[in-house]
Automatic annotation (TrEMBL):
Secretion signal span: none
Protein name, entry field: Unannotated protein
UniProt keyword Transmembrane helix, yes or no: yes
Source organism per UniProt: freshwater metagenome
Pfam families xrefs: BPD_transp_1 (PF00528), BPD_transp_1_N (PF19300)
Topology term for the membrane: Multi-pass membrane protein
GO cellular component annotations of the record: plasma membrane
Main localization, broad class: membrane
InterPro entries in the record: BPD_transp_1_N, MetI-like, MetI-like_sf
Length: 322
């Protein structure tokens, strides 16, 4: 198992290094892309362009520029923005991470509880009206766009009914947990519910399908022949086996959302998270900030995949021999 873990995390380091090189080449070595021209502004003279290239090390060979950027980004941590002169990248990223983590962790707890609970219930009650009813709930959750649902929630809680039923809902934005735990919870309650509804719908359908499929397997038929009840088979065997799929799915979803895929939720609810920071950096073509946010996103996605592989191997020993 230790060898398997070392192999997976070594591969993760290789992937992260490859991503950093690829992203650097896209923004700094693509023909027609001149970062110095973007920094200097329109109609800049050749003397100004030369001065900008010298200031930001853009006149050096690509390998040297790449190593210099990685050094300033990960070792010295003093990489500065090309747009906001003198403003360092790391403080901006560190300031945005808690908001995104708070949003994603809270939403993931809700969608796991709903997804697993309703998915198991639907599989166990598949011969009654409860199964199709839960299926409709899952379809509704998958079908509603996050940005539309968020705008509807804001229209109700921040607009028409704010002065009556929703006075307790704070204005849009993020309140740090360390500043005011109560306001932190209230400011994230509806973003949590909005983001979790989509994923809960997906997990309900996946878990229900997995359990129904497992209930037809030979080992389940053997348990029935031994006299095990349907409830015991459902909870002890089928549900536990379906966790392998849940672990894989959750690891990928969580890593992507923490990496910035919660952008739409952050924008709709005014949360200054990593997704919104990345979007702003792309709009301004702020290459150091883009590099930092992309590497941050890649780190969480790659590490999440590595952790999922390890958990998968722990749940199913056959994977270690692959």
């Amino acid at each position: 198992m230790i060898a398997f873990i070392a192999k997976r995390f070594s591969a993760a380091i290789f992937v992260l290094t490859s991503i950093s090189i690829l992203v650097f080449l896209i923004f700094f070595a693509t023909p027609g892309v001149d970062p110095a021209a973007r920094i200097a502004g329109r109609n800049a003279s050749q003397e100004t362009l030369a001065q900008v290239r010298a200031t930001f090390d853009l006149d050096k060979p690509l390998p040297e520029r790449y190593l210099s950027m990685m050094d300033h980004l990960f070792i010295q941590r003093d990489l500065t923005s090309y747009v906001n002169r003198g403003e360092e990248v790391w403080p901006q990223l560190i300031q945005a991470v808690p908001a995104t983590l708070s949003l994603v962790i809270g939403a993931s707890i809700i969608w796991l509880l709903l997804g697993i609970g309703l998915g198991v219930t639907a599989a166990g009650m598949r011969k009654s009206w409860i199964d199709p009813a839960i299926g409709v709930v899952g379809i509704i959750g998958v079908s509603l766009p996050v940005y539309w649902l968020g705008e509807v929630v804001n229209l109700i809680t921040q607009g028409r009914l704010h002065d009556t039923a929703f006075r307790w809902v704070p204005p849009l934005g993020y309140v740090p947990l360390t500043e005011n735990p109560g306001q932190w919870f209230l400011s994230l309650l509806f973003p949590w519910l909005t983001l979790s509804l989509l994923y809960a719908g997906i997990y309900i359908r996946v878990i229900r399908g997995e359990i129904v499929g497992l209930m037809q397997e030979d080992f389940v038929k053997t348990e029935r022949a031994k006299g095990a009840s349907e409830k015991r088979i459902l909870l002890k065997h089928s549900s536990r086996m379906s966790l392998i799929t849940v672990v894989s799915l959750f690891g990928l979803d969580f890593g992507a959302l923490v990496g910035g895929s919660a952008l739409l939720t952050e924008v709709v609810f005014g949360i200054q998270g990593v997704g919104r920071l990345t979007f702003t950096a792309l709009q301004n073509f702020d290459l150091p900030l883009i590099m930092a946010t992309v590497m941050y996103a890649a780190f969480f996605i790659v590490i999440a995949n590595a952790v999922v592989d390890v958990l998968y191997a722990w749940l199913d020993p056959r994977v270690r021999r692959g």
